[in-house]
Write a sequence for this structure.
């Protein structure tokens, strides 16, 4: 992992301390590029076109919210970007890598180092402690030795505000705490891209705000965040809001942060 | 993926420890059974032949009516084709131990209405001069004196229990020509060449010529036991060499009455033992395959629960190879645990099984060491087979795309809707038909084996039940020489005696041009023997079922009725040697008696053919309620006063018991094996039900939320298991018909069974009760867990 000097002011308590600052050059290269991307599923009722010829570019350091009604293709889109699913047609480049051309093994290795995924239902492994859940991506990708991985995991848990829960099983934590743990896990290998699929879907409004704030804070370190959400307030956290309908982009609006930056 | 992956799986195993324990238990039990059966079979196959051969069994026995002295024996031993030779004598006697008959025999006597107190039993005496210099049919000293002193005898070890005797006892022995004599049991020997005494329902004893003389018998040795060199390759070779030796003896003035050439170096019950071994081998393979399938099924179900977590790990960067290795390691761990439990128990089980069979079948297993390859097979079964079969569900789960895994698509068997007219429990069981089929495979196999074993046992019993319809006597008195047939009239006048028939008999062989009588009888003079009976044509004590032709009629001069077709046709002329006399007969009928041996001519024709008048067998029927012991004593008295020498007394009940005991080992082994298979099947069913409950936790929560109480949920789960048990019974019942037919045919070819096909309703009903009760018991813990779930807990399950 590359450590760069902190350029931005210290983050408020509870927000992730920036590690790196994205440079202008980094911001110039798109973090995500989808070209004519399609995804079709075979169902008992015939083929279902979840995405149809979608084009989208996301710049590095952006926080992009994907919104739309149920069945519009939101989750399919972020799954394709994260390499959790494969397009039926089209090209997808993430951080300069054509991920649609990678085989499963290479894709898994790439994903572990370059993408952090935050799921709606947290998806913490129930028989590992919170600390061990955060350490798992590091061990899977062999990024750090065990002792260093443990220290890193402690650090991340402290940064999301649940360091005192490190030794507990997920079932002992509240929904909000579990989602914070999931965010810490997603950041374990310092990925450039963070994907969050309905990260606040199971949380109360206050906790949801806090989680969205955490995610928004990640962009200050140069990370790109793409989140699927039903939250009406997402606009004030996001740089852009992409609206999908029937597998197509129907609107791209400026988010509150973009507006704020002017 | 080293430490955290394993820590995760350890946690998963701990969370599912009940189901995992059942699965490992099922695998361990099957490995124990496999190791026990395979290890025992391997040693027994090797040991049965070795045990028999260790006695240096005779290739042939030549009966010299003129006796064998030392000089003749030395001449025979000097022959180039003779490896070893001994002179012996075999005399049938009766023994009274003064103790009650053994429990097994008492049960038979009681069943036949014979009173207790009649403890005279058949005793076969083996006599020779020099026990220390035995070269043929060698016996092993177990305890006590060696050789037997004059006035004492050594008892074969299996005869102790059969006669209810102990070393050191003094018993009363009565020979055909002697008065009852007190004889001490001075020691115990082990004769590996004989069938166990308990199967033959007679004792075996070893005495010197001096003791024989003391018992009132002529101290002459008539039987020449011979082993040839080089060892004969076939029975025909042994027959050729022995008849050549017989011709040489005859040419030197030593008449040879009979040449007995048994199956070449083959134990008299080897066929029975090999049948049991084959059953054990088939069982081992079947259990291995079915257990592996069961384990793979349960592993597949466990993996299905892991699919979402597999998807998460892949999302975090885990590769297919890493995950497959992790879960393969899990399977290997479970297999190793099962193997660690099973291997030592299987070893102990095999050793105990070997010792048990060795004792029951009177074998000498000198080398009980289980070969290393048996352990290798166990290891392969415990590790390799589950890994091989689990590879499919493991790879299937690990190769799922992250999207499919997180959506829990593809790893589970598609749930199908069952016909709505079925009860809910049955419909639940049919939701996953492939898993249902695999989980019930062991139950089906166990059911087929158990019911088939009972059917065959019942068929054998029904065959034996035909005997009272064939034979209407209570006791046979076998004489050493013919006695006046009129003696039968005196016997019939004894109060309590209903009928008496004098029969003649002689050992028989197909006539040869050289005039020698060659038979295939063993030295115990029982196995392999063939007799021709001279029967009253209008006999009322035998009604043998006709297969072809007709029974004897008065006036038949050369008609013969065969007990088995023996390759002859009706109307065919056959020449038989009866006690050395060549006789020719015309086959007029074929009957199907039990035991299935012998041939029948009229008593008058018999007497004319062999030039001997008189009866050598008195068949006696008692009046209902008569005391057999008192009548037997009275009959013996009349016979003795009439000059008849009784060789042996054979109650009809003993014949029935002996025939029954010949398949006892087989039927009991089949029942035990099927019980083991059913146990493993029920363990697997318990594990499968546990997984099923886990998979349907949310569904159970919904049921409770809409009004189902704990009792209703409990009954639903138990009902599902019972439905599975019922389904297995239905399939097993359908398969048991061809299985029973096939086993009947096989045992019939081995000579165990007549043409009787029985499907026992008791077996079907009994297995139904057992499998329903077992299924209910197997599902108790999962059902209780389901009943205790709260709605909140159940609906929170993801």
């Amino acid at each position: 992992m590359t450590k760069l000097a902190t350029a931005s002011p210290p983050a408020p308590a509870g927000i992730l301390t920036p590690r790196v600052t994205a440079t202008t050059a980094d911001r110039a290269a798109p973090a995500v590029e989808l070209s004519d991307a399609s995804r079709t599923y075979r169902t008992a009722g015939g083929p279902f076109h979840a995405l149809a010829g979608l084009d989208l570019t996301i710049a590095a350091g952006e926080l992009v919210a994907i919104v739309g009604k149920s069945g519009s293709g939101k989750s399919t889109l972020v799954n394709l970007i994260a390499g959790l699913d494969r397009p039926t047609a089209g090209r997808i480049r993430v951080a300069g890598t054509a991920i649609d051309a990678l085989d499963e093994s290479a894709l898994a290795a790439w994903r572990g180092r370059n993408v952090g995924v935050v799921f709606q239902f947290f998806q913490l492994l129930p028989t590992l402690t919170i600390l061990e859940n955060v350490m798992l991506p590091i061990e899977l990708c062999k990024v750090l030795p065990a002792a260093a991985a443990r220290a890193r995991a402690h650090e991340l848990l402290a940064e999301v505000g649940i360091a005192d829960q490190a030794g507990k099983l997920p079932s002992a934590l509240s929904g909000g705490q579990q989602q914070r743990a999931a965010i810490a896990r997603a950041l374990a290998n310092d990925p450039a891209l963070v994907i969050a699929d309905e990260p606040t879907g199971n949380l109360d409004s206050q906790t949801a705000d806090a989680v969205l704030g955490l995610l928004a804070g990640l962009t200050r370190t140069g990370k790109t965040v793409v989140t699927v959400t039903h939250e009406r307030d997402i606009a004030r956290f996001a740089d852009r809001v992409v609206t999908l309908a029937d597998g197509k982009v129907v609107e791209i609006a400026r988010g509150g942060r973009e507006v704020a930056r002017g | 993926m080293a430490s955290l992956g394993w820590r995760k799986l350890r946690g998963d195993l701990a969370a599912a420890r009940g189901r995992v324990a059942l699965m490992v238990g099922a695998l361990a039990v099957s490995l124990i059974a496999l190791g026990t059966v395979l290890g025992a079979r391997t040693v027994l196959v090797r040991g049965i032949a070795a045990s028999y051969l260790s006695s240096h069994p005779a290739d042939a026995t030549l009966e010299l009516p003129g006796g064998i002295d030392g000089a003749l024996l030395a001449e025979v031993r000097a022959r180039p084709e003779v490896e070893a030779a001994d002179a012996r004598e075999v005399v049938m006697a009766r023994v009274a131990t003064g103790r009650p008959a053994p429990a097994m025999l008492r049960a038979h006597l009681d069943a036949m209405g014979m009173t207790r107190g009649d403890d005279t039993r058949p005793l076969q005496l083996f006599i020779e001069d020099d026990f220390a210099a035995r070269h043929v049919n060698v016996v092993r000293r177990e305890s006590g004196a060696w050789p037997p002193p004059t006035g004492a005898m050594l008892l074969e070890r299996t005869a102790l229990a059969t006669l209810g005797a102990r070393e050191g006892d003094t018993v009363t022995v009565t020979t055909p020509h002697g008065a009852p004599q007190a004889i001490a049991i001075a020691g115990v020997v082990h004769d590996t060449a004989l069938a166990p005494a308990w199967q033959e329902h007679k004792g075996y004893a070893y005495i010197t010529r001096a003791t024989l003389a003391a018992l009132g018998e002529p101290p002459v040795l008539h039987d020449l036991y011979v082993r040839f060199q080089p060892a004969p390759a076939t029975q025909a070779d042994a027959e050729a060499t022995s008849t050549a030796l017989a011709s040489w003896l005859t040419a030197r003035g030593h008449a040879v009455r009979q040449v007995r050439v048994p199956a070449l170096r083959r134990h008299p019950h080897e066929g029975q033992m090999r049948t049991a071994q084959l059953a054990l081998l088939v069982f081992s393979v079947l259990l291995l395959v079915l257990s592996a399938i069961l384990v793979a099924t349960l592993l597949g179900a466990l993996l299905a629960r892991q699919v979402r977590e597999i998807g998460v790990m892949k999302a975090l960067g885990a590769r297919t190879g890493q995950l497959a290795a992790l879960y393969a390691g899990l399977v290997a761990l479970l297999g190793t645990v099962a193997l660690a439990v099973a291997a030592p128990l299987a070893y102990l089980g095999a050793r105990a099984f070997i010792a048990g069979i060795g004792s029951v079948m009177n074998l000498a297993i000198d080398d009980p060491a289980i070969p290393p390859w048996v352990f290798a097979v166990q290891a392969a079964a415990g590790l390799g087979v589950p890994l091989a079969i689990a590879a499919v569900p493991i790879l299937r789960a690990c190769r799922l795309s992250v999207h499919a895994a997180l959506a829990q698509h593809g790893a589970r068997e598609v749930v199908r809707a069952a016909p709505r007219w079925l009860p809910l429990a049955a419909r639940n069981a049919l939701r996953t038909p492939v898993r249902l089929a695999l989980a019930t495979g062991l139950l089906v196999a166990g059911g087929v084996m158990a019911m088939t074993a009972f059917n065959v046992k019942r068929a054998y019993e029904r065959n034996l039940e035909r005997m009272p319809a064939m034979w209407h006597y209570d006791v046979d008195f076998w004489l050493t020489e013919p006695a006046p047939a009129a003696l039968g009239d005196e016997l019939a006048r004894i109060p309590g005696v209903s009928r008496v028939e004098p029969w003649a008999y002689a050992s028989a062989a197909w006539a040869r041009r050289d005039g020698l009588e060659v038979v295939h009888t063993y030295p115990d003079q029982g196995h392999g023997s063939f007799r021709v009976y001279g029967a009253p044509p209008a006999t009322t004590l035998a009604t043998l079922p006709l297969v072809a032709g007709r029974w004897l009629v008065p006036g038949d001069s050369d008609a013969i009725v065969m007990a088995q077709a023996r390759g002859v046709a009706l109307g065919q002329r056959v020449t038989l040697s009866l006690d050395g006399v060549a006789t020719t007969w015309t086959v007029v009928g074929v009957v199907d008696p039990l035991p299935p041996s012998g041939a029948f001519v009229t008593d008058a024709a018999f007497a004319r053919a062999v030039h001997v008048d008189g009866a050598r067998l008195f068949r006696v029927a008692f009046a209902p309620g008569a005391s057999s012991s008192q009548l037997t004593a009275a009959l013996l008295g009349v016979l003795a006063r009439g000059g008849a020498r009784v060789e042996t007394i054979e109650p009809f009940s003993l014949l029935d018991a002996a025939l029954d005991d010949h398949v006892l080992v087989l039927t009991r082994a089949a029942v035990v094996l099927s019980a083991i298979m059913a146990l493993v099947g029920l363990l697997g069913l318990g594990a499968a039900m546990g997984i099923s409950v886990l998979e349907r936790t949310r569904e159970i929560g919904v049921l409770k939320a809409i009004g189902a109480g704990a009792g209703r949920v409990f009954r639903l789960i138990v009902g599902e298991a019972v439905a599975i048990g019922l389904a297995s019974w239905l399939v097993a019942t359908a398969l048991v018909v061809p299985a029973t037919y096939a086993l009947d045919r096989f045992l019939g070819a081995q000579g165990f069974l007549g043409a009787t096909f029985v499907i026992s309703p008791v077996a079907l009903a009994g297995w139904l009760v057992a499998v329903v009760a077992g299924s209910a018991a197997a599902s108790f813990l999962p059902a209780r867990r389901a009943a205790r779930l709260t709605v909140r807990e159940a609906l929170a399950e993801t």
